[in-house]
Amino acid sequence: MLSLIPFLVLIVLITCCVAVFGNATLDGASQVSLLAASAVSVLIGHFSKRLTWENLEKEITNKVASCTPAIIILLLIGAIGGTWMVSGIVPTMIYYGMQIIRPEVFLVSSSILCALVSLMIGSSWTTVATIGLALMGIGKAHGFDDGWIAGSIITGAYFGDKLSPLSDTTVLASSVSGTPLFTHIRYMLYTTVPTFCISLVIFLIAGFTMNVSGHGNVSEFMDGLQRTFLISPWLLIVPVLTGVMIARRWPSMVVLFLAILLAAIVGLLFQQPLVHSISGEAGQGLLASYKGMMQVCYGSTNIETGVPMLNELVRTSGMGGMMPTIWLIICAQTFGGVLTATGQLQDLMRYVLRLVKGTASLVASTVGTALFCNIALADQYLSIMLSSQIFKDTYRDRGYEPRLLSRSCEDSATVTSVLVPWNTCGLTQSTVLGVATLTYLPYCFFNYLSPLMSVFIASIGWKINRSDKR
User: Fold this and answer.
1) How many Cβ atoms from other residues are within 10 Å of residue 20's Cβ?
2) First CA to last CA across the chain, in angstroms?
3) DSSP secondary-structure letter at 316?
4) DSSP letters for 66-125
5) Using CA atoms, how far apart are residues 38 and 179, in angstroms rounded to an integer?
6) Please, is 414 exposed, middle or buried when counting C-beta atoms within 10 Å of its C-beta (0-12, 13-18, 19+)?
């Protein structure tokens, strides 16, 4: 059981970091923990399997290289957070949203809205980084706790991501298991829709039973937004155009870059005094515009609105704010690369397969493995691929349809990734929303009920067919 040692070391180190550093764990302590666990894995691999450093380095390089697109997207999302805020796009969405969405149905409305947007565009990341930010502002104005707001946003975003044919995780889960895409999506409805309905009922009950005292905040927020930004429905052209580009299936990086460019142009047209004040070069014309907008894209901004709570909401960190997340992703991929090169993860999974007896235990083992991979490898794509590879032959040999494997992977790997603080999804969403992962985790009902629903459906055998050729 030498293969278990690196995971135990990581768990111990992360636990100590959380106890000592608290919410600041992700500022560097977690990264050091991942590298330390990687070093332990390297030592075990070297002495037990006589692996050369060249082989380990090659696997680490491949794993880090595989996350390059995600890193670029994170940088672009950081720039979108800055430009969409300073240009007045998000403030306008918040301003009108506060007038339309009533407090009693805010939580359930935000989940449904995020679900529809994510279903259409196939990206939970983009949904959270755009409409999610606006909903955070509306929810805070109504007096809801950050955890409830973020939980409702993430619930909707991951429901849509999970069922959208445009989603990369949906395509990945179906392809690696050998299941036609729309067969995979239709089969997920049996577990996904009931889980989402349960989540909506919880949010609806919470909305009507919570004693939120945010009516004063709403007026104060609206006044602060009007004083600071030029609010105009014309600003909503940018998110509309962004939605059109996504619907036409343009590459994600292209869409995000153009969304930044459009927001920058709109910002210079509608919020020029604010951009100049950010630059510190007020009255310098073109120089102030250029310097201010560049700073919005890459750096932090602190905008004074006259409302302390609103100041925190409209504060942005740009690309620079994503650097701790990127640093952690690189360290997590290093750990995953070492585990793959040494074969330690595969060794552990062999023990898991011995526990599989019937349908429920097989699905439960798949779900548990995907969750374990999300924790150990810190990446949902690796979790989907590895879980499928480990169990694919077992499902086939026991006569189960491949769609059961693809659904089990998505019911676990896709939705639980956002619940792990050091996972790429957990890091991204907590950074974008400004809410710690452990703060919103209890309220992401859809995300942690989905794996349980998958095991429950398997235990009662609903719509689970087996071949006679076994």
Assistant:
1) 10
2) 32
3) B
4) HTHHHHHHHHHHHHHHHHHHHTTHHHHHHHHHHHHS-GGGHHHHHHHHHHHHHHHH--HH
5) 34
6) buried
Tell me how far apart the alpha carbons of residues 251 and 261 are, in angstroms, rounded to a whole number: 16
Per-residue pLDDT reduced to its tens digit, 151-180: 999 999 999 889 887 677 887 788 778 888
Beta-strand ranges (E) seen in 162-252 are: none
- Look at residue 214 and tell me whether its pLDDT is greater than 60: no
Rounded distance between C-alpha atoms, residue 163 and residue 176, angstroms: 17
Q: How many residues does the chain have?
A: 470
Contact present, 332 and 379 (Cβ < 8 Å): yes
Closest CA to 23 of 310, 373, 434: 434
Helices 359-377 and 344-353, packing angle to 10 deg:
160
d(CA 320, CA 412): 31
Q: Residue 275 has which token pair?
A: 């951009």
Quick one: 274 exposed, middle or buried, by C-beta within 10 A (0-12, 13-18, 19+)? buried
Residue with tokens 């690369």: 337
Please check whether residue 73 is in contact with residue 125, taking contact to mean a CB–CB distance below 8 angstroms. yes
Tell which phi-psi region holds residue 296, choosing left (phi > 0), alpha (psi between -120 and 50) or beta.
alpha
State how far the Cα of 48 lies from the Cα of 229, in Å rounded to an integer.
Answer: 63
Q: Name 29's Cβ contacts closer than 8 Å, sequence gap at least 6.
A: 17, 20, 21
Collapsing DSSP to helix, strand or coil, 150 comes out as helix
Contact call for residues 91 and 263 (beta carbons, < 8 A): no
Helix (H/G/I), strand (E/B), else coil: 56: helix
Strands (E), 274-334: none
**Contact between residue 63 and residue 337 where contact means Cβ atoms under 8 Å apart:** yes
With residues binned 3-state (H G I as helix, E B as strand, rest as coil), the percentages for the chain, rounded to 5, are: 80, 0, 15
How far apart CA 44 and CA 42 sit, in angstroms, is 5
Cβ contacts of 11 within 8 Å, gap of 6 or more = none
In the block, residue with structure tokens 């996904």: 192
- Mapped onto helix, strand or coil, the DSSP state of residue 466 is strand
Model confidence pLDDT, tens digit, residues 335-369: 878 887 888 777 776 777 777 778 888 999 899 98
- What pLDDT, on the 0 to 100 scale, is given for residue 52? 78
User: Which two three-digit tokens encode residue 443?
Assistant: 């309220």
